[in-house]
Design goal:
Chain B: Pfam families: Arm, Cnd1. Chain B: InterPro entries: ARM-like (IPR011989), ARM-type_fold (IPR016024), Armadillo (IPR000225), Cnd1_C (IPR032682), RSP14 (IPR042856). Chain B: This is Radial spoke head 14 homolog. The complex is a heterodimer. Chain A is built from five helices and no strands. Chain A is mainly alpha-helical. The termini of chain A are far apart. Chain B is mainly α. Chain B is elongated. The mean pLDDT of chain B is 83.
Chain lengths: 322, 306
């Protein structure tokens, strides 16, 4: 019943202090509701400690009516101490937590500042490194390009020098070969060569042919004459030999002379010509009996021989010249 | 009258702004469902509860694994501004952890955030968004660059509110860590504005601007853009600033600028300043060492002869 209202210290196995955990108090009242029919108020079964008369409190000036249960003021002290202590401790913890948090934040901030400055330093060094590297790359590239250009230029120069030398030889050789092939000519010389000399040779040939023809004709003539004389001589020997002594020196002489003439045509031409002329004159004067044909032939041979003579002279002169 | 009997009604809700969370590992799934509810109040309360829960990193991890991001993505476009603000706050808290930031990026929440930055008018909202962006951009900036974050940040650099300026500069700092970011920063002519910000009265604005410059001047274009905008003298002043981070950033930025021949010429006069920095000390040994090292590197870069 409510007499079991005493505080838990009497029944607690351990002391109740401010560090102990809250515990559910054992049930201190009747579990079941009172039937409302019971008007009995004397034993206050659900009695609040505050209204229990048997408890003495500081502010009750009521007379002690029943047997004392306990002195409230005395008993309340430890309870209050525990309560207040717990509250204060809790609030102290919270405040300390907040302070700790603030300190943490402050140190975090400081650390961040230091870290930022270190980071900046690292980045600066990185940047410097990058710049140096890029500069080096650029310089290397430049150098490489210079060397490359240098090489190219020297190659070009070498190629040019070589080509020049090659071609320098080429030009004279070309000209030489052209000249050798006869592509360069002096027009007058060529003209002379082409025009004059063949003509000259032609003429020389013609003249030589004429002289050959003439000689052949002369040979024919002489042969005829000789045959005829022979024939005449043979005839005349048969009949009489009166005009013979006049003829003989002239005739055989002429014959021999003409024979000589035919034999030695070139070298003693002028002599034979003269002799022949004399011979002709003698023949003309002495042998008028000869046919006019003979005379014409003789004149023709004279002319031919004259031409021959002049031609021979010319050729002789030319030979002298050349 | 207090009765010791259990009442039949639900227990009293102490915090009416928050929904009651379930116990143990059911808390998050239940909240997730409530986020999708039709009722505005439920959503708001669920968001508030989520916000409180998110302070615990394990909670964040768990929330990510059950896929709260999708819900948050939907809620960003909610009609009620309160919902949006709270969603952004949740995102901010998740972004402060690396897991959360990665999750945000992978779910593609950056573009809506950037868009929001342009659209929202309230300054606190903008600050929140900027904070979130700062944290996310630290992880990965590619998606943000795709959504033109540089232009948006450029506008914010000129805002009146100093917090917005400083956070925008910080965001630009994180953006320009990546190479693509640097190029975009140079392309959109943000550097002159940053140099102008170097003369700002507020210290943390200056330091963030110096930091952004420090990263942007790593590439050659950035260097020459900064030199043209006369960045050297403000940076030199910043070397004497009380904030350590400002000095560190300024030293680093000057080191970058000293790599260009023109910068080197100008800075050769100021080598003694750097030498003085080499010997100064600081209470925290790491910071002091960092400062000394930065000063030494700056001197060596300035005095470099090809």
């Amino acid at each position: 019943m409510t007499s079991a209202l005493t505080d838990g210290t009497s029944r607690a196995p351990s002391t109740y202090t401010y560090t102990s955990r809250p515990r559910a108090l054992p049930c201190q009242r009747s579990r079941y509701r009172d039937s409302l029919t019971q008007p009995d108020e004397e034993p206050m079964r659900y009695g609040n400690i505050m209204y229990d008369r048997r408890v003495i409190r500081g502010n009750t000036y009521a007379l002690q009516t029943g047997p004392l249960l306990f002195d409230f003021d005395l008993e309340v002290k430890p309870v209050l101490e525990v309560l207040v202590g717990k509250i204060i401790e809790q609030s102290l913890l919270e405040v300390m937590e907040e302070e700790e948090l603030a300190n943490l934040r402050a140190s975090q901030r400081e650390y961040e500042e230091l870290r930022n400055s270190e980071r900046a330093e690292v980045q600066r060094l990185e940047e410097q490194e990058r710049r140096h590297r890029e500069e080096k790359e650029r310089r290397k590239k430049q150098q490489w390009e210079i060397v490359h250009k240098h090489n190219e230029t020297s190659q070009k120069i070498a190629a040019r020098a070589f080509a020049q030398r090659y071609l320098a030889d080429l030009l004279p050789s070309v000209f030489g070969s052209l000249r050798d092939s006869g592509y360069f000519y002096d027009p007058i010389e060529r003209d002379i060569e082409i025009g004059f000399l063949p003509w000259l040779m032609n003429e020389v040939e013609k003249t030589m042919e004429y002289s050959m023809v003439g000689r052949i004709v002369l040979d024919m003539l002489i042969r005829d004459v000789v045959e005829k004389r022979l024939y005449m001589y043979e005839h005349k020997e048969e009949t009489h030999r009166s005009p013979e002594p006049e003829d003989e020196p002239g005739g055989p002489g002429a014959v021999t002379e003409s024979l000589e003439a035919s034999e030695f045509p070139e070298h003693s031409m002028s002599q034979t010509q003269g002799l022949l002329l004399d011979g002709d004159y003698v023949q003309r004067t002495t042998y008028d009996r000869r046919s006019s044909q003979e005379r014409k032939l003789m004149e023709e041979t004279e002319l031919v021989e004259q031409d021959e003579e002049s031609a021979m002279r010319k050729s002789l002169e030319e030979e002298d010249l050349s | 009258v207090a009765h010791s009997q259990n009442s039949m009604e639900f227990p009293v809700n102490i915090n009416t702004t928050q929904i009651t969370t379930a116990y143990g590992h059911r808390a998050l799934p239940k909240l997730k469902e409530e986020l999708q509810s039709e009722d505005l109040q439920t959503r708001q309360k669920a968001l508030m509860a989520l916000c409180d829960l998110m302070h615990d990193p394990e909670c964040i991890y768990k929330a990510m694994s059950i896929g709260c991001m999708e819900n948050l993505k939907v809620l960003l476009k909610d009609s009620n501004s309160m919902v949006r603000i709270k969603t952004t706050e949740v995102l901010f808290i998740t972004a402060s952890h690396s897991v959360g930031a990665q999750e945000i990026i992978s779910k593609g929440l950056i573009s809506p955030l950037v868009w929001k930055l342009q659209v929202e008018r309230e300054e606190e909202f903008q600050e929140l968004i900027l904070d979130t962006l700062v944290l996310c951009l630290r992880e990965d900036a590619t998606e943000a660059l795709g959504s033109n974050v540089v232009l948006v940040l450029k506008q914010k650099l000129l805002s009146v509110n100093e917090n917005i300026r400083s956070k925008a500069a910080h965001a630009l700092l994180n953006v320009s860590i990546s190479r693509e970011g640097k190029k975009q920063v140079c392309k959109f002519d943000v550097i002159p504005i940053l140099v102008h910000l170097l003369k700002d009265p507020v210290e943390h604005v200056k330091s963030n601007a110096a930091g952004a410059l420090m990263f942007a001047t790593v590439i050659t274009e950035g260097k020459y853009a900064a030199l043209e905008a006369q960045a050297i003298s403000p940076l030199l002043e910043l070397l004497h600033s009380p904030m350590t981070v400002a000095r560190l950033n300024a030293t680093k930025a000057l080191t970058m600028l000293a790599e260009a021949p023109e910068g080197r010429k100008v800075l050769q006069v100021h080598v003694p300043t750097f030498r003085a920095m080499e010997v100064e000390s600081h209470e925290k040994p790491q910071v002091a060492e960092a400062l000394q090292r930065a000063a030494r590197i700056a001197v060596s870069v300035i005095e470099f002869k090809p």
